[in-house]
Design goal:
Length: about 325
């Protein structure tokens, strides 16, 4: 299908000029109607981004490709004669930045790669916090409100998922990453500038999130939907596989701290509020088992502990 609707691209440098109001309105519209937008002129140095991309691709070749191929063999996925619905065609590793960095525990990273990812992570953390304040402004919440909610007693959780989606002989048989909404707060994605694959669900259609050199894709997680009482939405997205090309993506998740208390902001809540209040970690325990299912039953289940156990018996939320 031809893509007729235009994916929102926000030029952040316009926030410092005459077009500030239109730019803020564009961000607000994207948060309400897309759950996604792409930013350019975000302040991240392009040479750092190029370096991170290059080293991520080298790291995959050197340290991940063999493991990925072994995984395919062990799961019998080389042939792909039937549809596979319980595995993702992706190779990943995780870096945690906050509350404590694990950057120096990851094996097989060159010093140069580690240093670049540290710098990249710090800049994305600052960018995430700036974006949260733009959201606060649009939502009529006091400056710093979201950051404060996410802080809990230990500060936010911030981590990076480094992924490669290798070429796939049967793209119709398996997804790179199955459809899901993200559980957390705000997600900043640096994706391959050539190989596409990310799609979001809008009004029943899967829409491509187009590669755009040196841009960062932003999307909102379930927690922002709860805090905004549904004014903003977390939106289903997936990665499709491609016959040609290895797609790189680096997704950084700025999430609440484990003991942060999440609930609709009082100025946005209404009598008919449909969203629950909970401790973030309890939501994550539930999410772990039902990530690839719709979010609505999760929100529903968080209103009552028995329902949580029914949806995901492993979650066992404690209530006192
Ligand atoms: C995710 C995700 C998209 C991508 O990891 O939650 O949606 O392009 N990733 O890797
Ligand atoms: Ni996601």
């Amino acid at each position: 299908m031809e893509q007729t609707i235009k994916f929102p691209v926000v030029n952040l440098s316009k926030l410092n000029g005459e077009e500030r109001d239109q730019t803020m309105a564009l961000i607000n519209d994207a948060c309400e109607n897309w759950g996604f937008f792409e930013i350019v002129n975000h302040g991240l140095p392009h040479d750092l981004m190029d370096n991170v991309e290059k080293m991520t691709k080298e790291h995959y070749k050197k340290s991940m490709e063999q493991k990925f191929n072994d995984m395919l063999r062990s799961k019998g996925l080389e042939k792909l004669e039937t549809e596979v619905e319980d595995v993702d065609w992706e190779s990943t590793f995780y870096l945690r930045h906050l509350p404590q960095s694990n950057l120096y525990d990851i094996p097989d990273m060159s010093d140069e790669y580690r240093t670049a990812m540290k710098d990249f992570g710090k800049r994305l953390e600052n960018l995430a916090e700036d974006l949260l304040d733009l959201l606060c402004e649009n939502l009529g919440l006091e400056n710093g409100y979201l950051k404060k909610v996410f802080h809990g007693t230990k500060g936010p959780t911030f981590g990076t998922k480094v992924s490669n989606y290798p070429p796939c002989p049967g793209p119709e048989m398996i997804k790179g990453l199955r459809a899901h909404t993200d559980a957390g707060g705000i997600i900043l994605l640096f994706q391959d500038d050539k190989v596409s694959g990310l799609q979001l669900l809008k009004d029943g259609d899967w829409i491509d999130v187009p590669p755009l050199n040196h841009s960062i894709v932003i999307n909102l997680g379930d927690q922002l939907e709860v805090i905004t009482n549904g004014k903003y939405k977390s939106v289903m997205h997936r990665v499709v596989t491609q016959k040609e090309g290895n797609r790189m993506s680096i997704a950084s998740f700025y999430n609440p701290g484990s003991d942060a208390e999440i609930s609709p902001a009082s100025s946005l809540a209404s009598k008919e509020t449909e969203y629950p209040s909970f401790v973030f970690d309890d939501y994550m325990k539930l999410y772990a088992g039902v990530k690839f299912q719709p979010k609505e039953p999760r929100f529903e289940a968080m209103k009552n502990a028995t329902a949580v156990t029914e949806l995901n018996p492993a979650a066992s939320v404690e209530t006192f």
